[in-house]
Amino acid sequence: MSNVQNNPTITDPIIETYRFMIGHRALWMYLMLKEAQKAGLSDAFTEDAIYRCGIIHGEATSVPAGTKSLKNLMKESFKEEVGQKVFEMNVVECTDDYFAVDFNYCPLVAEWQRQGATDEELPRLCELAMMGDRGIAEAYGCDLELPQTIAEGAPTCQIRFIRKK
Question: Which domains does the chain have, with CATH numbers?
């Protein structure tokens, strides 16, 4: 029995469709990592690829608006109602230089659990997936802090974008 509790409270067919799509991305990642592991390869390639994806996403959302304000990041990437419901998000605080958001559900963790990932594997899978958010943070001139994650057994993922000094 897993110590990681990750149960959605919002049930809606449209939200479930989006969760399925995000879970499918987690499935690809999980299966690629398992195949790499069978071949005796490190998972380091995943960090680099997902980080680059985050940089591309961060640049795409900051350049058109012409701003590195984290208010823009929230508007472009976190404000959309469906996305908020998919991850059951709560925006804690948002300024130009600091953005704090909590996720109360993670469809990636849910898929990794369906595939049989252990409680010991979940934090590393999460760390790899969060490389995309680290790339986004870099594109915005920020650091990313994760005080706690669902994958580690916490009730929420606390995601904090903090402007570099």
Answer: 13-163 (3.30.1380.20)
